[in-house]
Design brief:
The chain is an alpha+beta fold. It is built from five helices and eight strands. It has helices at residues 2-5, 24-27, 67-72, 80-90, 109-124; strands spanning 9-17, 36-42, 47-53, 55-56, 62-63, 74-75, 78-79, 96-103.
Length: 134
């Protein structure tokens, strides 16, 4: 998956949750709050979710949240940290790895997300387990 994004991204990194009793906000504090995409892996190294941060307006400017804010926002009406904890418990995982990619100027985050989702779908014939639709 990483190879598909190389021409589209300017910066990337990863973090693990949970880590040493730190909150999700603390763990993600170094992630830029700019448009991008992220892939969540379970502790077995399998992709469980692909998402994006940032929506583009008609005039080409970005609106909505960047990566850091998106990763710390809500999911299904609950804090993202609580959502991750419940998914980790439900799936009997030790942790998750969040890989994030800051997209280059002029790249629409939804396009990068779509490429990743399509690649996953081509390989497995379904969406990642935590993605409910696309």
């Amino acid at each position: 998956m990483d190879e598909l994004l190389k021409p589209w991204v300017s910066n990337e990194g990863q973090c693990q949750f949970p880590t040493n009793g730190k909150t999700l906000k603390e763990i993600t504090s170094e992630i830029p709050n700019t448009p991008g995409v992220y892939i969540i892996y379970n502790s077995k190294g399998e992709i469980v979710y692909i998402g994006k941060a940032g929506t583009i307006n008609q005039d080409g400017t970005f609106k909505k949240q960047g990566l850091r804010r998106r990763l710390n926002n809500q999911h299904h009406g609950m804090r993202r940290e609580d959502y991750f904890i419940s998914k980790i418990e439900d799936d009997d995982l030790d942790h998750i790895i969040i890989k994030w990619y800051e997209v280059n100027q002029g790249v629409i985050p939804g396009s990068a997300e779509g490429i990743l989702i399509q690649e996953y779908f081509n390989k497995y014939g379904e969406l990642p387990p935590w993605n409910e639709g696309f």
